[in-house]
Each structure stands twice: as structure tokens, then as C-alpha cells.
Amino acid sequence: MDRTTVDWVARLARLEIDERTSARLAAQLSAILEYFRSLEQLATAGIAPAAHPGDLRGSTRPDEEAAASAAAQLLANVPRTRDGFIQVPRIIE
Amino acid sequence: MTSPAGAFRSAVSIRDDVVHGRRSAREVIEETLARIDRLEPRVDAFLAVDRAGALARAAEIDAEVTAGRAQGRLLGVPVAVKDNICVRGLPATCASRILAGYHPPFSAHAVERVLAEGGVVIGKTNCDEFGMGSSTENSAYKPTRNPHDLERVPGGSSGGSAAAVAAGMVPLSLGSDTGGSIRQPASLCGVIGFKPTFGAVSRFGLVAFASSLDQIGPLGASLLDVATLASVIAGPDARDSTALPRPAPDFVAALSPSLEGVRIGVHRDYVEDVADAAVRALIGRALETLREAGARIVHLDGVDLLSRYAVPAYYLVANSEASSNLARFDGLRYGPGAGAPDLLSTYTATRGRLFGEEVKRRILLGTFALSSGYHDAYYLKALRVRRLFIEAFQEAFRNVDFIAGATSPIPAFALGEKIDDPVTMYQCDVLTIPASLAGLPAVSVPCGRTPQGLPVGLQIIGPALADARVLSCAFAFEQRSGLMGTLAPLAEEVA
User: With a threshold of 0.90, does the pTM exceed it?
Assistant: First the structure.
């Protein structure tokens, strides 16, 4: 994985990465992906992907009213609030 | 039954003393805090100790005992909780700077169950950031030291939970296991660590790393204690759609010291091919002990358990899930936040500055594996290999009840030894990952120490839902091994 790819993936992942880190990560991620290429030795045509260990079926519950965490407690963890709302930078000029 | 001397006080004996009024919960908690005060400066197992909260809870318990209303399977028992498991009123940083100052307004299901049975949360334990690591060196705050040798790692990611038990600070702790994060530190610290079947314990209140792999489980120094805590935390929970719908069996009632008629599978990946000679020797002796207890050893060399593919398959699946799960840390809703002038740079600056290097590496790897053009070659390929792991275990379990072998290919390594080489660090998990990929119950139980005095764990893996039988098999081994309640020598200094 070269520097250009690392920078592209970092943009997708919303990660700010400086040039030195990007160079180091490019070398490390290349070594990791090279090691992962051993999976190519395994024939997997026709094998169904297993997203979960068991074959889970969707689990549902009755839709009933219940108490939730109080808004004030949740907002107590928010870095910037105003009038009981989460404050974010302006997104519309 | 062995009766251990020294610093070890089992959770079961503490509970009995408190229930019958032989000791007050206050005495138990004060003694626990005093031990933490003496040992913590050397071990660094905790990120937070809830001195005031634990003493207040002890007072409540003592009032209940006096009023004759006291009950609970963990009454008065101090329990340490890994910092990625939420406890209402205590910080939950996941050992990350991105969650510095976060106080969850709720407790995890497993913690609610512990509290309902009279347990006392004594504090939050150190771990690799978001559970990502095998040495606890990826904590953003400090490394934890192995109580058996303070210059070595305790393993990870639940290194603080394992070290706190090994040092005799607490009889029980909760950890989480995604690819071995309970079993590997248990092995390296000489304690017991149990990863239940995927879904046996609700993940509600566990900060998500890889949702198809994460599982909460207990660590302790006696099988009876570990089975008690496992019984307390297992069971259905409507808040986790992957929690198994049926009540869990009573793991304590199922413990038996006999292995008559039990078939134990042995595979070279977990025995002969293990890297370290001292580990190989101890595992060989442990298998002999199982045979003496009545088990029949069955060689599985005709089955390919695919262990050489475990690390690549796991790191693709887990990191793909992590890249999605960790997207929620945006600097707006939790933690310090970077406060940049626009939304995009708030995200990138917060995440770039506050995630540690291993977390970034894994997010990048997962994002890459899921990205357009690479998704089929990496992510879907790994999921197909995961199916092969599930089928390989199913084939093996047609002829045996358990598979036994090493938990970790090596004993505890030196602090700093592997931290700059991710590929080598990832290989620490080669023997714990397969059971994680297949969602199987597995336990690590101490089986002795190397000539250097470093603990080694025997891993016992069972088929899905065989949690009770896996714990019982480990119990039978513990009874024969005479290692029940063996703590690190350092623990005995404060006995």
C-alpha cells in the first residue's frame, strides 16, 4: 500500500494523518497486507460468507414504551451544547 | 480439593463470610482497597478505583445483612471491570484519549447482573485502546505490568483485568474477548479466563470493537469463582439482538471433577507446533493430567484446523467491523473533541489527534478492506474463510467433546519487545482466534510455569453452547493440577 493509497483511505476514514505517520503506516500496512495474501491459497469458490459465527435470524421484541436514558445525562458528555442541543460547526453558509 | 494458602481469598468464600455475618462487606472492601494501594503502584492494573462508591455500596450490603435480607451469589465480592464495559457513574475511556472524561449514563447488562447479585464494582481496569492489542501496551494512559515479572507484559487486551486477579487485588474481574483478549492475558498472568459462546452474554454496554466477535467474560483464580460469575452474567437481554434467547444453564451445578468417558481432541497446531519449547512441555504434561482424570485423548491430525490462516482472516473481519463501529467517535457527542472551524475538519482532527497509532492502523486496514474495488478480495474472502473455520471445528467435534492445547504460543514477553512490529504482535493470537471466528466457548486455565517462572495456560475449546461442559472440563483439570488459587509471588508479599 503506497502513500497515495494510505492518504485516500485516511480521507475515507476521516483521519487526519501527517506525512511522517503516513509514510510509516504505508510500510506497516504493506507488510500486513502481504502477510494476509496467504488467504489466496485457500479455495473458497462457492463458500457462503459467514458474517456471524452462528446463523442468526433477526430477533425482534414487542414495540413497547419504556424509559430511556435521560437527555440531560447524555448531553453531559457532549463537548459543546447550546440550549439542550449538540452544537456543531455551521454547515450552511 | 486443594486448599490454597497465602493471599488468595475466593469470591465464593468472601460471599459466604458476608452472608453469614462472619465478615462485613466493609471489612472486605477496605482490605481490597488496602491491597490495591500496596500493589497498584507496581502493577498499574487500574485506570480508576471507585473508593467512595465501593465503600458506600459495602455499607448498603452490611445494612441488608443486619436486616436479615441479604442475598446474592456475589454478596460483598469485589469485582474489577475492564474499561470498555460501562458502569454507570464511573468513567469509561476504553483506554483511549478520545473518550477521556466520558461517563456513561447506564451500566452494561453484565454489570447490572453483577450488582443485582450483590457484587461491588471496585474500579475500571486498563486495556489496549478499544481492546486492540495483545499486550495492554496500546493503552493511551499507561502499560500494565505482569505481576509474575514486572518487566513483562500481562498480555491483552484485558491485561488489567488479568493482572488485578493475578496480584490478588480482586478475586474476579470482567474482560472482553474479540480474538483472545480474555484467554491470552489469563494465560500470561496465570489466572483463569473464560470466553463464552458468542451471544451467551449480552454485549449491551460493551463499547463495540467487532460486533460479530466481541464477548464479555469472567477472569478469576478458581474455576468455581469463574463459573459463578459466568452464571451471573449469562442469559438473554432484549437490548442485544445477538444475545441468545434462552436462559443459561447453572454452570456451577454442572461442575464435576470427573472426566470419565470424555474425549479430548489434540491437534498439532495447538501442541507440537507451538513456538515455545517450555510451553510445549507444559501442555504435554497437562494433556497427561487430563488423561489421568479419565479423559481419552484423540489425535485430530486428519483434520485441518486451518490455524495458519487464523490471523489474516481475523484481522480482516475484525478491523472491517471496527472501522464501521469506531466511526461514531466524531468529536461531537463524546470526549474532548477538537473544535475545528468546520464539520469535516472537526472529524478528521479529533480522530487524527485522539486515536492511538494501533487504532488508526486498524481503522485504515478495515476501511481499505471494505472499500470499492477491494471489498470482495479482502472482506468477503475473509468471511468465506471464516465459514471454513466453522466447518473445520464442526468436523472435529463429530469425534471429540473438546479440543485442548496451548492458549498462547509463547509466555509473557518483555515490555516494548513487539510493540513496533504489528505482524509479530498479531501472531500472539493465533491459537485464540479460531474459537473466536467460530463463536465457540473456550477457557484458559493455568497449567504451570516455565523454568523462568512465567505462567502458561491450557486452552479448552468446546462446541457452540457447550459452555457448562467446557467449564466443567477445566474444573476437573484444576482439581488434578493443584494450581487452584495460585497467585503471583508478588501477591504473597502483601498476604
Answer: yes
